[in-house]
Specification:
The protein is of the alpha+beta class. It is built from 5 helices and 5 strands; from the N terminus they run E-E-H-E-E-E-H-H-H-H. Strand 1 and strand 2 form a beta hairpin. The termini are far apart. 38% of the residues are buried. Bound molecules: FE2/S2 (inorganic) cluster (2 copies). One FE2/S2 (inorganic) cluster binds next to loops. This is (2Fe-2S)-binding protein. Keywords: Iron, Metal-binding, Oxidoreductase.
Length: 156
Amino acid sequence: MSPGSSIRISLKINGGDHELPIAACDTLLDVLRDRLGMTGTKKGCDMGACGACTVLVEGRRIKSCLALAASCDGRSITTIEGVGGVDKLHKLQAAFIRHDALQCGYCTPGQIMSGLALLEEKPASLEAIREGMSGNLCRCGAYPNIVAAIAEVAGL
Ligand code: FES
Ligand code: FES
C-alpha cells in the first residue's frame, strides 16, 4: 500500500462511532483535528517531543502526532472533548483551575490527558508525578502548579 492510498477505518472516539476514509500516511492527530474537527487536541512540535497531542487509546496515553490513524482502526480513543465540559469539569480540570496550572493553555489538553493516565497508575510521590509528566512540556513554565493539581487529585 502506498502512503497516500485511501483506506477506510472506524474509530470509537469519546463513545461515538466514526467511519471515514483516510490516507495510509495520515496521523491520528491530523484525522482528529482536520477531518473530525476535534481541535481540543493540540499540535505543538508534530514530532513526539512536546506532548500537546496526547490522547488515550484503549486507556493508554499516546502522542497522536506519532500514531498512524490506520493503526487505530477499531480502537477506542478518548480526547479532551470526552473528559469534561464547562458545565461539568472533571476533577482534574477543576484542580488545574484551582492551582492556576496553566497560563496560555496550549499545552493543557495534553497535560490533562497525560495526567488522567498517570492517575490510573497511582503515583506515590511528587517525584513520581514529575517523572510521569516529563513527556509533556509547558513553555509557560507552569510545572509546579501542574504537579500540585495532579497531586491533589492523587491525594498526596
Ligand atoms: S505535537 Fe505530538 S508530541 Fe508535540
Ligand atoms: S500553559 Fe502555556 S504552554 Fe503550558
